C-alpha cells in the first residue's frame, strides 16, 4: 500500500455522493429474518445423523446426536438412520479461532505495496493506525460481522476477539465505555459465532512506561478506567448465551509490570491473553529494558498457568520453549498473519515435543481460513527443517489429524471453554461435503489430512453453532445482508 492509500480527509478529492449506508440498528430485522429458519429449527430437541463423526474419544460411525437447548444431550453410535433423517457428511468439532482483531479484516489486501524504505511489521502498524482513525461503531460492527461470517464458513465456531479499539476518533471515551465491545457482541449475535471477548489494556508505547503515541489514542486506559471497561464489557455480552469475558494486557511493551499485577485480578477465572515475542525488535527492546527476553520475563514475574494464552511467542530460545510448554499455557499461533507480517516461524516441533498446547487464530484477518492456518503452520516447519510431516505425532500418524485435534483442544482452553464433541457439551460442529473431490474415498483422519492440505474452498458444507445451523451448502444464512452492510461501510471508510 502506498503512503497515500489513506489520505487525510482534506486531501480526499472532490466531494462525491456518499455510499448508501444503512446503520446496523436498521438492518438487524433483515438479518433476523434471514436467520428465522435457523431459529425455528432450534426449538425443542432435535436429532441429526452423520455417516461418521470425530468425537472426543475418536472417530465413530453411524452417529446420531440429540440436541437440546443448544447442547449435545445424547450421542448414539452404530445406529441406523431413521426414516426422515437427513444424511449428513462427516462431522467435526468446530475449530476455535483464539485471536482476532476483527476491524483489520477491512485492511486485507491494502498493505501489499512496498514502501520507499522497505516494509516490516512496524511500517504496517503505522498504516493500521491511519486506517483505524476512520472507523466508527457502525463500521466496526459491519466489518466484524463479515469477519465472523467468514470464520463460520471456514469452520471456526468461536472467536477470541482481542479487542483494543475502545475510544472515539479523538481519543475521548464514549458515554458507554463498552460501546465498541457492544458492537463486537452485536456482530457475534448476528452471525451466531461464539464469543470470548478479551478487552485489551494498553497504556504505553514502549518498554519502561513510554507515553502512548497519537496513533494509539483510541486504545489507551489507566488501571481504573480498564476496570470500568471490563465491568461494562461483561454487561455488553450478557445477552449472548455462552459468551466469555477475559482480559488482555496488550504486550509487555504496552503494560508495565506494576500495571500487569494490578489488572490480573480482573480476569477472575477467565482467560488471560497477551502478545509476546512476535518480533525480534521486541525481544531486543525487552532485553535492553529489563535484562530478560519477553517470555522469560513473563514467566519470572507473572503466574502463568492454564488460563494464559501467549499469542505469537514466535522468538523463543530452547529454555523458553520448554518453560512455556511445561507451564500449561497455550501458544496462540496465527501462521497466516505471521507470514504476512514477516514475523518469523514458531518452533512448533520442539514445543510440541515438550508437551506444549497450541491453538490457532486469524489475527489481522488478512485471509480467514482455519484449515489454511493449520497448513501454513506445518509448511513453515517443513521449510525451516527441510522435512515432511513434521508435526505428526509418531510414525504412521496423520499430520492433519494431529494438527486439527490439538487446535480444537488448545483453542478451547485458551477461550475459556471445553472443546470437542461429547454429551453435555455445546453442539458446535462442522460437516464436510462428501461430493467435494478432496473428500472422495477418505475416512477418519484421512479426511482431516485432505481438509488441511487439499481441501480448498467448498470442502465445508454445514456449520452448527449451539445446535443451530448457520452455514448451509458452504454459505452463511445471512451472507447477503452482511455483505451489503460491509460494502457500504467500507465505501464510507475509503471514500
TrEMBL record:
Keywords, A to Z, come to:
Hydrolase, Metal-binding, Zinc
Q: Which cofactor does it need?
A: Zn(2+)
Domain Amidohydrolase-related per the UniProt entry, residue ranges: 92-470
> The Formimidoylglutamate deiminase N-terminal domain covers which part of the protein?
51-88
Provide the residue span(s) of the region labelled Disordered: 1-25
The family database entries (InterPro entries) matched by this protein are listed as:
Amidohydro-rel (IPR006680), HutF (IPR010252), HutF-like_N (IPR055156), Metal-dep_hydrolase_composite (IPR011059), Metal_Hydrolase (IPR032466), Metallo-dep_hydrolases (IPR051607)
* PANTHER family assigned to the protein according to its UniProt record, in alphabetical order: AMIDOHYDROLASE-RELATED DOMAIN-CONTAINING PROTEIN (PTHR11271:SF48), GUANINE DEAMINASE (PTHR11271)
> This chain belongs to which protein, by name?
Formiminoglutamate deiminase
Taxonomic lineage from the root? Bacteria, Pseudomonadati, Pseudomonadota, Alphaproteobacteria, Caulobacterales
Amino acid at each position: 500500500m502506498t503512503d497515500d492509500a489513506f489520505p487525510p480527509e482534506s486531501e480526499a478529492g472532490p466531494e462525491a455522493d456518499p455510499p448508501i449506508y444503512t446503520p446496523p440498528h436498521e438492518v438487524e430485522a433483515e438479518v433476523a429474518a434471514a436467520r428465522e429458519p435457523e431459529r425455528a429449527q432450534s426449538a425443542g430437541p432435535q436429532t441429526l445423523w452423520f455417516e461418521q463423526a470425530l468425537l472426543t474419544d475418536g472417530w465413530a460411525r453411524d452417529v446420531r446426536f440429540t440436541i437440546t437447548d443448544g447442547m449435545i444431550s445424547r450421542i448414539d453410535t452404530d445406529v441406523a438412520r431413521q426414516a426422515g433423517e437427513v444424511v449428513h457428511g462427516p462431522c467435526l468439532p468446530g475449530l476455535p479461532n483464539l485471536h482476532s482483531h476483527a476491524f483489520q479484516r477491512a485492511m486485507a489486501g491494502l498493505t501489499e505495496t512496498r514502501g520507499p524504505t522497505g516494509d516490516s511489521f512496524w511500517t504496517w502498524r503505522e498504516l493500521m493506525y491511519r486506517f483505524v482513525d476512520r472507523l466508527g461503531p457502525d463500521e466496526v460492527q459491519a466489518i466484524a460481522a463479515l469477519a465472523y461470517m467468514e470464520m463460520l464458513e471456514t469452520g471456526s465456531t468461536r472467536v477470541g476477539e482481542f479487542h483494543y479499539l475502545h475510544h472515539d476518533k479523538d481519543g475521548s471515551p464514549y458515554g458507554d465505555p463498552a460501546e465498541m465491545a457492544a458492537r463486537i457482541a452485536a456482530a457475534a449475535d448476528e452471525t451466531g459465532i461464539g464469543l470470548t471477548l478479551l478487552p485489551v489494556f494498553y497504556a504505553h508505547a514502549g518498554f519502561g512506561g513510554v507515553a502512548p503515541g497519537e496513533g494509539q489514542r483510541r486504545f489507551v486506559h489507566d488501571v481504573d478506567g480498564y476496570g470500568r471497561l471490563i465491568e461494562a464489557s461483561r454487561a455488553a455480552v450478557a445477552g449472548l448465551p455462552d459468551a466469555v469475558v477475559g482480559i488482555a494486557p496488550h504486550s509487555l511493551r504496552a503494560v508495565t509490570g506494576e500495571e500487569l499485577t494490578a489488572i490480573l485480578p480482573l480476569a477472575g477465572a477467565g482467560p488471560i491473553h497477551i502478545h509476546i515475542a512476535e518480533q525480534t525488535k521486541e525481544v531486543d527492546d525487552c532485553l535492553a529494558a529489563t535484562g530478560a527476553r519477553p517470555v522469560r520475563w513473563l514467566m519470572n514475574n507473572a503466574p502463568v498457568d492454564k488460563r494464559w494464552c501467549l499469542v505469537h511467542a514466535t522468538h523463543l530460545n530452547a529454555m523458553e520453549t520448554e518453560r512455556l510448554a511445561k507451564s500449561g499455557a497455550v501458544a496462540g499461533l496465527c501462521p497466516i498473519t505471521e507470514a504476512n507480517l514477516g514475523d518469523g516461524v514458531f518452533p512448533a516441533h520442539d514445543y510440541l515435543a515438550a508437551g506444549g498446547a497450541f491453538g490457532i487464530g486469524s489475527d489481522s484477518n488478512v485471509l480467514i481460513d482455519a484449515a489454511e492456518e493449520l497448513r501454513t503452520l506445518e509448511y513453515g516447519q517443513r521449510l525451516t527443517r527441510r522435512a515432511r510431516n513434521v508435526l505428526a505425532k509418531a510414525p504412521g500418524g496423520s499430520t492433519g489429524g494431529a494438527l486439527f485435534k490439538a487446535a480444537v483442544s488448545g483453542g478451547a482452553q485458551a477461550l475459556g471453554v471445553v472443546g470437542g464433541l461429547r454429551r453435555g457439551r455445546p453442539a458446535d460442529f462442522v460437516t464436510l461435503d462428501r461430493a467435494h473431490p478432496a473428500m472422495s474415498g477418505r475416512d477418519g483422519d484421512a479426511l482431516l489430512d485432505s481438509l488441511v492440505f487439499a481441501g480448498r474452498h467448498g470442502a465445508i458444507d454445514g456449520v452448527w453453532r449451539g445446535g443451530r445451523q448457520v452455514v448451509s451448502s458452504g454459505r452463511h444464512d445471512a451472507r447477503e445482508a452482511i455483505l451489503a452492510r460491509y460494502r457500504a461501510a467500507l465505501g464510507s471508510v475509503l471514500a
